[in-house]
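Researcher: Next entry in the queue.
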Amino acid sequence: MPVIVDSSRSSHDCRGNPDRKPSSQLPERPCRCVTIGLINNMPEAAFKATERQFVSLLNAASEGIPVRLSLYALAGIPETKSSGSHAGSRYSGVETLWNTRLDGLIVTGREPMSPDLRDEPYWESFTKVLEWARGNTYSTVWSCLAAHAAILHMDGIGRRKSEEKYFGVFDCARVSSHRLMAGTPPSFQVPHSRWNGVAEKELTACGYGMLARTADKEIDTFVKEGDSLFVFFQGHPEYESDTLLREYRRDVGRYFRHEMNTYPSIPRGYFDQRTETTLATLREKAISSPNKEILASIGTALGKTTIENPWHLTAGRIYRNWLEYIREQKNANLPRPVGAC
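Model: Structure for this entry, 341 residues:
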């Protein structure tokens, strides 16, 4: 059953206003659906793609579970002309959440502008969302930087920057029998794209549970139980096949425009061997003598490669488990979200 995306900024208001008629696009029996919110914090280049990725992943995971998805924008996130126009027609401000509840919530990350996340212009809005989510969702997903910001606010756990970007598709091992991992293989692959990580011993000392680690002992997925089950992804199971390619091409462009001092690393475990060899050769040439011809050759090499997506099935399984957990919590003898369907 396809996910129904609320296309009106005010469509969520019908939960708290009995006089407002619900959208005709909603399922005939909305009381059976699971209501999910997506707070999309990504910048212009990735804003629409991020929305598309999560909608696609929820579609793949939701067979037999009606899902109604509402879109939200965090206060303090800078808007560009195109992303602002798109958000203006489809997204509500998070302040509309304060007097309602959702069954589940997904919060994305974005590239930081400050070394300390608490100095980001959206920090106050973000922490208010987190405190709201504790008591007004059955479960919330915190993705990448949002995961780091959440644990910093809740438990003072800071992230640590690496000398090299953790970038590519990494082998992961399931390390827990938690229900979110039910039906997943013992080992699987997940894309990562980040400079920062967190120490497992600090997380476990604060009551977090590890669900998956990469082969080189980096944390992939972890959770914290509470009134709402908080799920944290350092990786990006929602990524499409070409997302890392587009990020790599973006960073190469930044290097050629002198916006980055260091040439970007080639994503690990992602390209076929021939493409990786070609890109490595072009990388050496670009470092020694950058010019437009080399940049064009990089674009040609990227245009010829074919990317597989070995992480899609496992990502769908984890999100399926997440939706099933939320549905069970909703159907149990627990307080129902006010006005939720």
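Model: The chain has two domains: 4-239+309-331, 243-304.
Researcher: Noted, moving on.
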